[in-house]
Automatic annotation (TrEMBL):
The keyword 4Fe-4S does not apply. It is a multi-pass membrane protein. This is ABC transporter permease. Residues 63-250 form the ABC transmembrane type-1 domain. Belongs to the binding-protein-dependent transport system permease family. GO terms for biological process: transmembrane transport. It is found in: Cell inner membrane; Cell membrane. InterPro entries: MetI-like (IPR000515), MetI-like_sf (IPR035906). Signal peptide: none annotated. Pfam families: BPD_transp_1.
């Protein structure tokens, strides 16, 4: 039994209010003028002042670190997870359940427990690759596995990849051309969804970076929040805005794809 349109709108309205209320409170807080009770734009305009680059240099560095981690993490998903899933889907379908189980495991393990297991591994990673911030993407590549897997797998199940690949091979195309010109265009929605969700997860991650003594956006926000909570909330809102834009982009791409298929 499908719920009526009225029921759907009521549910969406309640969920929207639950999410919107704390966000609106955050926006209002960024305009407060201290304890005077008034409101001001100084906290926003102060970010563009000459002293802001020096005062919040650590925060801007953390933003750069998080963006670098997002790029490397997405690269890990696209270079390792995506080809593996395509290979299993086409050549080893009996291993689909095994791969799904492996990819879902990280969501069942608390981040702090995951760090305990990663700590000795990172002792080796630091010796091999150094202590650069980008090495944290190895851990993030594990944490985003459940979300990236579901996004790509739903697209794989919706497209007859076996028939497409066999058609390409019948036309004498090698596996590289089949993958690039036939399979990936049909997996665009799943790949973009996995990439955007990975970016959103990386931008919001705190526990692993904090316990492994790395500086990313969330750890920097905690430090800045102890001295200037207004700037910390402003950057948190900007990170939320970026995540919303990415999720809306996924929905728009999926809608445009369905529209193209219907036409």
């Amino acid at each position: 039994m499908q719920p009526s349109n009225l029921t759907r709108w009521i549910i969406l309205g309640v969920v929207g209010i639950v999410f919107a209320f704390p966000i609106l409170a955050m926006v209002e807080f960024t305009f407060r003028d201290g304890l005077s009770g008034g409101h001001t734009l100084d906290h926003w305009t102060g970010l563009f002042s000459e002293d802001a680059a020096r005062t919040y240099r650590g925060l801007f560095t953390a933003v750069g670190n998080s963006l670098l981690l997002a790029v490397v993490t997405v690269g890990i998903v696209l270079v390792i997870l995506l080809p593996t899933m395509i290979l299993v889907h086409l050549q080893f379908p009996r291993l689909k359940r095994v791969l799904e189980f492996i990819c879902i495991i990280p969501i069942t393990v608390p981040a702090i427990v995951l760090v305990v297991g990663l700590a000795p591994v990172y002792a080796v990673v630091v010796q091999v690759f150094g202590g650069s911030i980008w090495t944290l993407a190895f851990a993030y590549g594990i944490t985003v596995l459940p979300y990236a897997y579901r996004a790509i797998q739903s697209n794989l199940d919706a497209v007859d990849m076996i028939t497409l690949s066999e058609a390409g091979r019948t036309l004498s195309a090698n596996w590289g051309r089949v993958l690039w010109h036939v399979l990936l265009p049909n997996l665009k929605r799943g790949v973009l969804a996995a990439s955007f969700i990975s970016v959103a997860v990386v931008l919001g991650e705190f526990t692993i970076a904090s316990l492994l003594n790395r500086v990313n956006l969330q750890t920097a926000l905690l430090q800045v929040g102890q001295s200037d909570p207004y700037v910390a909330i402003i950057f948190a809102l900007l990170a939320l805005l970026l995540a919303f834009v990415l999720l809306l982009s996924i929905a728009r791409i999926g809608r445009s794809r369905r529209t193209g298929s219907d036409s």
